[in-house]
Write a structure and sequence with these properties.
There is one protein chain. By secondary structure, the protein is mainly α. The chain folds into two domains: 1-91, no CATH class; 92-170, no CATH class. It is built from seven helices and no strands. The chain has helices at residues 2-11, 16-34, 41-51, 67-86, 105-125, 130-139, 143-167. It is globular. The relative contact order is 0.10.
């Protein structure tokens, strides 16, 4: 029985509506309990500020008042590790879908790392990440977040189509 519950929560994919409700509950809980918006990239900025002297990272948003973001980020990492452990261990998956069949593992790592850097850079340029804009900003009715979300979706679609056109020619 316990294994079935672990599989249902940590191994099997959740239906979209349950995952959406879970994210919504986190947003409401953060707002109600901590008066804070859901934010991931600013938390990463706070981590980087601890190890860097770059003027950009010395801004007040990354300072001591953002300590809760470090705790939130640690909880995200701990939750992912717990999920991996409870699901039976670590291993490579098919996160890149059919591209995994045509890209070597070192190239997959390079593509994912490069994409992560570009996403981080774009998120800071946009004043927030997809969770900040698409979940929090749109729920607050911010026009800039609706625009940012549309650009995230268009950029993702364009990048996916370009990558498939380059790597998987027809």
């Amino acid at each position: 029985m316990l294994r079935g519950m672990i599989d249902a929560v940590f191994v099997n994919p959740w239906p979209w509506w349950a995952a959406g409700a879970g994210i919504g509950l986190v947003v409401v809980a953060l707002a109600a309990l901590a008066s804070r918006p859901l934010s991931v990239t600013t938390g990463l900025g706070s981590v980087c500020a601890m190890a860097s002297n770059l003027p950009y990272l010395k801004r007040s948003e990354f300072g001591a008042s953002g300590r809760w973001r470090l705790e939130f980020l640690a909880a995200v990492v701990a939750g992912a590790a717990l999920s991996g452990w409870l699901s039976g261990g670590w291993g490579s998956g098919q996160a890149m879908g059919s591209l995994a069949a045509v890209l070597s593992q070192p190239l997959q790592i390079a593509v994912l790392a490069g994409g992560g850097v570009l996403i981080g850079f774009g998120a800071r340029m946009a004043g927030g990440c997809t969770s900040g804009h698409s979940i929090m900003g749109t729920s607050l009715g911010a026009p800039s977040s609706f625009l940012a979300t549309a650009m995230f979706m268009l950029g993702g679609a364009a990048a996916t189509n370009a990558l498939f056109a380059i790597v998987v020619p027809s």
